[in-house]
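ARCHIVE CARD
CATEGORY: sequence design from structure
SOURCE FIELD: tokenized fold
FIELD CONTENT:
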């Protein structure tokens, strides 16, 4: 009788552990789905994210949705307001400027830290990414251009060897990546960015880290001046960006 009772207890515990595992796995899948939808602006900034409606749409219970929304809040993609629920986070022009200033400083640090770790394959990848950006700019795919630009700069972050730097940079770039600013690419801005990337790569190939850092600082100054000008800045979600 004792054996049967112990077996029942272990069986219940096993089922509970399995259920917890399934819920965790499901929450991760829901998180990835919602994250993709937010980043693609299927849910644009300011959009409410009601748990019950999302759970019904995804055919899951509210528990994994709630957990997914909490993780998205940590990413800075969702704002959870007590008694009002969750909504997609948005950035004001001032918040975008502050994020850009931090991003620019982190990218300079990443070049300094990654310089000794960059190999020929890394430099080749930077060349490839810059060529992809040139083609995207030529084709008018502005959203893809900025996505590739983020990948270009993230290479230095990933080669920095500093895990804390990665953790600070990642949510910042995720929040910023949902927007584009027309002033950044009008009047030759995109073409200029590509040329400046190429100059940075040349400096890195020449093993001149000081020049590479200075070029990166100059590269980041033009957009920052636009943001700091005090003019009304239009932040446009990429879902509404012009494409060909």
């Amino acid at each position: 009788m004792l054996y049967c009772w112990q077996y029942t207890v272990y069986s219940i515990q096993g089922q509970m552990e399995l259920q917890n595992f399934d819920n965790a796995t499901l929450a991760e899948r829901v998180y990835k789905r919602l994250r993709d939808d937010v980043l693609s602006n299927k849910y644009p900034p300011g959009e409410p994210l009601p748990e019950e409606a999302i759970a019904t749409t995804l055919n899951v219970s509210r528990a994994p949705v709630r957990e997914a929304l909490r993780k998205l809040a940590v990413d800075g993609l969702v704002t959870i307001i007590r008694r009002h629920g969750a909504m997609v986070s948005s950035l004001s022009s001032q918040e975008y400027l502050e994020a850009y200033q931090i991003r620019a400083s982190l990218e300079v640090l990443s070049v300094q830290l990654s310089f000794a770790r960059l190999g020929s394959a890394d430099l080749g990848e930077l060349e490839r990414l810059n060529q992809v950006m040139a083609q995207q700019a030529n084709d008018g795919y502005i959203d893809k251009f900025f996505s590739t630009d983020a990948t270009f700069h993230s290479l230095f972050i990933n080669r920095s060897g500093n895990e804390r730097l990665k953790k600070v940079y990642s949510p910042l770039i995720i929040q910023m990546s949902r927007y584009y600013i027309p002033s950044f690419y009008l009047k030759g801005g995109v073409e200029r960015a590509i040329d400046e990337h190429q100059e940075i790569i040349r400096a890195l190939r020449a093993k001149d880290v000081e020049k590479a850092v200075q070029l990166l600082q100059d590269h980041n100054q033009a957009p920052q001046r636009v943001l700091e000008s005090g003019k009304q800045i239009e932040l446009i979600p990429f879902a509404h960006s012009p494409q060909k």
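CARD ANNOTATION: Residues 1-21, 240-244 have pLDDT under 50 and may be disordered. The chain has two domains: 2-88, 93-240.
SHELF: design records, drawer C
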